[in-house]
Specification:
The complex is a heterodimer of chains A (about 160) and B (about 170). Chain A is α/β, with parallel strands linked by helices. Chain A is about 20% helix and about 30% strand. Chain A has helices at about 5-15, 35-45, 105-115; strands at about 20, 25-30, 50-60, 65-75, 80-90, 95, 120, 150, 150-155. In chain A, the strands form three sheets. Chain A has a five-stranded mixed sheet. Chain B has five helices and five strands. The chains are: A alpha/beta (about 160), B alpha/beta (about 170). The interface of A and B includes residues 138, 150, 153 and 154 of A.
């Protein structure tokens, strides 16, 4: 199925949720509070069967919002889907899909570590690349490199 | 002073100083801590393999810092790893030496400006004896650095001060 068909199929199933279709880069923009239900639906729906989360990426849109992009693939049906969630940078909470696709476990930890959105419902949301005592989220556009880390000078 | 400069023709007698023979023994059996941090470790492994055969210098890779004389810091030292490198160095028995291999561990390498997570030179956490330049250095460069380190050990003195050990 194409993106537009999937979008029409999902809006019929979730009429109240406020799903949006982005024509520019074909993707479906999902509200942060609905991403878990939508993910469960696209995974278990007989017509969709998106059983494979190829990648989950964190984005800083540099306009006061952060984004999470989900690239999905269906192994049995051979089609692809892109979902997108946009959250405000000062309150970056969205639902976790870690229990929907186990792949999302480490991907969400990475997005949390580097960009700093909080995945509600994740069972083990710790930093994954940076040390646990690191401050800040380095891939934010407004990130400032610290002068010192544990007594070690950081700038050249 | 060379080891064999006072050799007698009969009786298997060689005259040398205690320091000379001890340093000769030590520099010919510098044991190396076996760990690599990035692509430099591939060149370090190539130096150990048959073509370059760093073992002819008496180098033996050891899995424990307690059994090692030399730490080759081969690769990018992230801030997360820097605390571990420092801990490993502190666990080595003295006299101990550090070879900094490659641009990353010398000065941060290509991460010098935008690497928020990279230590700009391992000499900010441990004292370095020999710097091997290159990105990554060829195995020959590492062997050259190793021979520089051997020269340093050869000049070591138990009685003289400031003999260059860390």
């Amino acid at each position: 199925m194409e993106h537009k068909e999937i979008f029409d199929h999902l809006t019929a199933l979730f009429p109240e949720t406020g799903l949006e279709f982005d024509e520019d880069v074909p993707c479906i923009v999902v509200p942060p509070a609905a991403i878990r239900d939508v993910s469960l639906q696209v995974r278990d729906d007989e017509m969709l069967q998106f059983d494979f989360l190829m990648c989950l990426s964190g984005v800083d849109n540099a306009d006061g919002t952060l984004g999470v992009v989900y690239h999905l693939h269906s192994v049995p049906l051979g089609h692809k889907l892109t979902l997108k969630v946009i959250v405000p940078a000062d309150n970056p909470h969205l639902q976790s899909v870690e229990r929907v696709w186990r792949t999302a476990d480490w991907h969400e930890r990475e997005a949390y570590d580097l960009v700093g959105m909080v995945f509600d419902g994740h069972r083990d949301l710790r930093r994954i690349l940076n040390p646990y005592d690191w401050e800040g989220h380095p891939l934010r556009k407004d990130y400032e490199v610290p002068e010192f880390y544990n007594g070690m000078k950081v700038p050249y | 002073m060379g080891l064999l400069d006072k050799q007698f023709d009969d009786g298997n007698i060689v005259l040398t100083s205690v320091e000379g023979v001890l340093n000769w023994a030590r520099l010919c059996s510098l044991w190396q801590m076996s760990f690599g941090l990035a692509c430099c470790a591939i060149e370090m492994m190539a130096a150990s393999a048959s073509h370059n055969d760093i073992m002819r210098f008496g180098v033996l890779p050891r899995p424990s810092p307690r059994q090692c004389d030399v730490m080759i810091v081969a690769g990018t030292v992230t801030l997360k790893m820097a605390t571990r490198v420092k801990r490993l160095y502190e666990q080595m028995a003295e006299p101990r030496y550090v070879v900094s291999m490659g641009s990353c561990s010398n000065c941060g390498g290509p991460y010098w400006e935008h690497g928020y997570h990279v230590l700009k030179g391992v000499d900010r956490v441990v004292p370095v004896d020999v710097y091997v330049p290159g990105c990554p250095p060829r195995p020959e460069a590492l062997l050259e650095g190793w021979m520089r380190l051997q020269e340093k050990v050869r000049d070591f003195s138990l009685v003289k001060k400031n003999n260059g050990t860390a």
